[in-house]
Amino acid sequence: MTDLVQESSATGRQRMPRAFWALWTGSLLNRLGYLIQPFLALFLSGRWHLSPGTVGLVLASFGAGAVVSQPLGGWLADRWGGRRTLVAGLLATAATAMTIPWAGTLPTLVGAVVLYGLTVDLYRPALAALVVATVPGEHRARAFGLIFWAVNLGSAVAGLAGGVMAERGFVLLFAADAASCVIFALVAVRLLPPDRRAGARDGGRGGAGPVSDALLWAVTGTFLVFAVLLVQAYVTMPLIMLDQGLPATAYGLVIAVNPIVILVVQPLLVGRLASWPRMPVYAGSLAVTGVGFGLLAAARDVPVYVLAVLVWTVGEIGVATVGPTLVTEIARPGSEGRYSGLFGMAYGASSLVGPLVGAAVLDAAGPTALWVTCAAAGVAAAAAAVALRGAVVRRTASARLG
């Protein structure tokens, strides 16, 4: 852990700024309450007694809101300020979360889930913008890696606690999730510096906005492929394992490898990943992720599944460490929130696209074809990232000069 809380520099060992640790601590505390999304399907089927098809439609409504959440949060962060947007987004998430358990009709429930999806990621682009504002450029990859590690630690604990809470009543899940958002908001108000005036954030640089930035959309496209691959771990992989005669406990064991590997391996890798050139790390991580899913084509028992999860998790660590940093580096000054929001929109889009594409390939061609397609998609995304390297290098060099 010592290596996690210190920075390498030419002048010795330099600690991260205090404001960064406020963001890191808030992220950890917030993720300890990450209880609604993992257990929402159980709430819908158990409390509401909805059919699987209806559950899928309600979850899709969450995805529809989530697609808009990060771009909206990024726009607010650049126009309104990172700390204000972070606090407002967290409080809005807490409020919308508590509307779900009290919904009285199915249309009301769907509306509450859409609102929750719309607010749940408002804070993420603001968080990225605040990292840019508080952490020197040469240390940002490590900063994003540390936050990713904290998020996974909190999620692992939340998964264990959520099962216990769900048995005592689903309202506890929503209350705990809302409380964690409020706590993060209080940490931000207490420990983060006030936002600068909007004029000070504009950067004084003209040019097209992020919506018309072809390089941003190209990088985001590669990230969308990555996100769609990850969705298969929670949608098609469990279905295939059950069809192979493996029990649900086997799936639970296999999928638990992912957070365990992140918690153990990322502290060992984050320093190296942060010091290497961005695009080769990003492209290589995309390829490793695809290869990991491709290994599932040979999986018939738990050990092979575990190996596949281990491989793709190493790729996930690389993408999660370098991807957010890369996007803030190609962003025009004063646009980091909007760039991060459009990039993060891929997560929401993957929650809509991933299940549809994965299920369609599985139904039409079977599991082997699905996993081979996943491998090909990961390698293709990596090749696209390699092709973008020159444009990214020119953009980042121009940013440093300008």
Topology, element by element:
Blueprint: E1 6-9, E2 12-15, H1 18-32, H2 36-46, H3 52-80, H4 82-97, H5 106-120, H6 123-134, H7 140-168, H8 170-191, H9 198-201, H10 214-232, H11 236-243, H12 248-275, H13 278-294, H14 302-330, H15 336-365, H16 367-401
Explain this structure.
- This protein is mainly α.
- It folds into two domains: 15-192, Growth Hormone, Chain: A (Up-down Bundle), CATH 1.20.1250.20; 208-402, MFS general substrate transporter like domains (Growth Hormone, Chain: A), CATH 1.20.1250.20.
- Helix content is 79%, strand content 2%.
- It contains 16 helices and two strands.
- It has helices at 18-32, 36-46, 52-80, 82-97, 106-120, 123-134, 140-168, 170-191, 198-201, 214-232, 236-243, 248-275, 278-294, 302-330, 336-365, 367-401, and strands spanning 6-9, 12-15.
- The two termini are 37 Å apart.
- The model is unreliable at 1-13 and 199-207 (pLDDT under 50).
Q: What key phrases describe this protein's structure?
A:
402 residues; mainly alpha; Growth Hormone, Chain: A; 2 domains; two-stranded antiparallel sheet; 2 strands
Summarize the structure.
Residues 1-13 and 199-207 have low confidence and may be disordered. Helices cover 79% and strands 2% of the residues.
Q: Which CATH first-tier class of the largest domain would you pick?
A: Mainly Alpha
Low-confidence stretches: 1-13, 199-207
Give the CATH H-level superfamily of the largest domain: MFS general substrate transporter like domains
Domains counted in the coordinates: how many? 2
Question: How would the global form be characterised?
Answer: globular
The residue fraction in helices comes out at over 70%
- Strands in their spatial order, largest beta sheet: 1-2
Mean pLDDT: 87
**Largest beta-sheet characterization:** 2 strands, antiparallel
- Count of DSSP H/I helices: 16
Percentage beta strand: under 5%
Judged by helices, strands and strand pairing, the structural class is: mainly alpha
Question: In CATH terms, what is the fold-level topology of the largest domain?
Answer: Growth Hormone, Chain: A
Ends apart, CA distance between termini = 37 Å
The overall strand count is 2
From N to C, what is the helix and strand string? EEHHHHHHHHHHHHHHHH
Rg value: 20 Å
Can you name the CATH architecture of the largest domain? Answer: Up-down Bundle
